[in-house]
């Protein structure tokens, strides 16, 4: 089918193109009867505005770019759901890119966002990103930017994260209250902001309960497929009675490794994760975890970015917003099991 244009509608109704255009925009300059004729005819012919023409006219693409480390990660897929819901309701489309935990890929994808004339950028930094100078340059060029989940203190832009410190504190406190004292912490790479926040929460809980922090009970794992197994072997030499993993992916790796070694969970070693993936309650035993508000993070981050794009008064802040987490207790940390 040929695309119907404003000129086609004007010709059919014997009106000027400017009259049709104003009628479709519900302008007060056009009388009610003319508006009705134009709108009904446009609907009958399924007229749709040309997005390219609109973006040229408004100097806006109504597209926001989203860069995440990995879409296959359940947390990020839920965040994207939240972003898309808000963007759609406010008249924006979303272009999604992956950095695959690479600074170079991140830089290239952000350049794609800019080349495609996106109105703004939502980004969660890769584990290899230590230098955010390229984002600072874009900020200086007035590109609206909002960070989410993984952020940087070196960039003064709005950010939206889970309250990682409080979540880690609650997880560690729960293990202490169930009688555990030698709590091993399996962390994600130390360069990532959320790793630092969760480690700080873990340490604060130990300190509050008078338990000395031991460096030898903390190990950082990357994102490779076989990294957890040797870490568990190493930590078992320290005779822990609990494992707090900084992500459910790592927690499941710990679960598998402990079972392989015939260690009973939670009787010999308790286990707790961080994310609350959908299968956490289906594991054997069902896994205690900290729930991250992924959908809400996406919704709030998208709302903040669109406020920035549209110049809303409340968008000028560069404050970081931390959304509360929730401890979900299951059998993997049961006391006296």
Automatic annotation (TrEMBL):
UniProt keyword list: DNA-binding, Transcription, Transcription regulation
Pfam family for this entry, one: LacI
Keyword Ribosomal protein assigned: no
Alphabetized SMART domains for the sequence: HTH_LACI
Keyword rRNA processing applies: no
CDD domains hit by this protein: HTH_LacI, PBP1_LacI_sugar_binding-like
Taxonomy, superkingdom: Bacteria
HTH lacI-type domain ranges (all copies): 4-58
Endpoints of the signal sequence: none
Protein name from the UniProt record: LacI family transcriptional regulator
GO molecular function terms noted in the UniProt entry: DNA-binding transcription factor activity; transcription cis-regulatory region binding
């Amino acid at each position: 089918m040929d695309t119907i244009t404003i000129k086609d509608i004007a010709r059919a109704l014997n009106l000027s193109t400017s009259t049709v255009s104003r009628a479709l925009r519900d302008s007060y300059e056009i009388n009610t009867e003319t508006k009705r004729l134009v709108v009904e005819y446009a609907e009958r012919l399924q007229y749709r505005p040309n997005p390219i023409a609109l973006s040229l006219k408004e100097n806006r693409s109504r597209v926001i770019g989203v860069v995440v480390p990995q879409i296959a990660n359940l947390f990020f897929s839920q965040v994207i759901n939240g972003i898309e819901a808000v963007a759609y309701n406010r008249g924006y489309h979303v272009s999604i890119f992956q950095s695959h935990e690479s600074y170079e890929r991140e830089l290239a994808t952000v350049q794609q966002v800019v080349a495609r004339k996106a109105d703004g950028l939502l980004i969660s930094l890769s584990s290899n990103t230590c230098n955010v100078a390229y984002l600072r340059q874009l900020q200086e060029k007035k590109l609206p930017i909002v960070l989410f989940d993984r952020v940087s203190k070196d960039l003064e832009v709005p950010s939206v994260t889970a309250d990682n410190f409080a979540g880690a504190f609650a997880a560690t406190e729960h293990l202490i209250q169930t009688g555990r004292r030698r709590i091993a912490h399996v962390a994600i790479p130390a360069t990532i902001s959320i790793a630092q926040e969760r480690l700080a929460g873990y340490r604060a809980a130990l300190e509050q309960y008078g338990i000395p922090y031991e460096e030898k009970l903390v190990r950082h794992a990357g994102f490779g497929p076989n990294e957890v197994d040797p870490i568990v072997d190493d930590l078992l030499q320290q005779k822990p009675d609990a494992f707090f993993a900084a992500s459910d992916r790592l927690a499941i790796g710990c679960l598998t490794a402990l079972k392989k070694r015939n260690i009973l969970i939670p009787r010999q070693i308790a286990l707790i994760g961080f994310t609350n993936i959908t299968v956490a309650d289906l594991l054997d035993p069902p896994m205690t975890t900290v729930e991250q508000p992924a959908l809400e993070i996406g919704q709030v981050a998208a709302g903040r970015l669109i406020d920035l794009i549209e110049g809303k008064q409340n968008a000028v802040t560069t404050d970081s917003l931390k959304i509360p987490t929730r401890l979900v207790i299951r059998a993997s940390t049961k006391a006296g099991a």
